[in-house]
């Protein structure tokens, strides 16, 4: 599995971010080809001190190729272009392969 994570610093207007994100952005995300699962939270906390992030989003794909194809697709380009409509604090995008282990 391959995971894409988006970390959002605090926006200028948190209420607008929440409303726009849920009402407009997430419906675009659900149309990404190859998307296996997704989740988000507005309740980001740090284990110590203040968190530098307001919100977090996670998406799962079968592998890096599927994620790359999704991001390059017309739907992926639409998702990327939409970020400026709500994320005035910017966004940090990371991705990585997930290795499942059991204890």
TrEMBL record:
Domain of life of the native organism: Bacteria
Q: Which InterPro entries match?
A: Dimeric_a/b-barrel, EthD_dom
Signal peptide extent: none
EthD domain span:
11-88
Cite the Pfam families for this sequence: EthD
Under PANTHER family, the record lists: BLR8190 PROTEIN
**The protein's name in its UniProt record:** EthD family reductase
Q: What high-level taxonomic lineage is stated for the organism?
A: Bacteria, Bacillati, Actinomycetota, Actinomycetes, Kitasatosporales
